[in-house]
Amino acid sequence: MTYIMNFAASTTSRSNRIKEYQVEVITYDGDSHTVYVEARNEEEASDKAADMVGNADYTMVYEVA
């Protein structure tokens, strides 16, 4: 199971436009990987990053300005 820690600058209204996110993926082995993904929201960004790295324990999502 992947847990999401959201550090993105959220607004009150959600939109479907694609944004760039920096995602730090921590694996079960304790390794840290930083990846950049384009997604519509933080959850989608987390899922994409976890799929890219594999063996993901949790992610931390940051919206790139």
Mean pLDDT: 85
β-sheet strand percentage: 35-45%
Overall shape: it is elongated
Count every helix, treating DSSP H or I runs of 4 or more residues as helices. Answer: 1
Biggest sheet, open or closed, and with what strands and sense?
4 strands, mixed
Ends apart, CA distance between termini? 28 Å
Radius of gyration: 11 Å
Describe this protein's structure.
With 65 residues, the protein is of the alpha+beta class. The protein is built from one helix and four strands. The chain has a four-stranded mixed β-sheet, with helices on one face. A hairpin with a 4-residue loop joins strand 2 and strand 3 (32-39). The longest helix is centred in the last third of the chain and has 12 residues, at 42-53. The radius of gyration is 11 Å and the shape is elongated. The chain starts with a strand and ends with a strand. The model has no long low-confidence stretch (mean pLDDT 85).
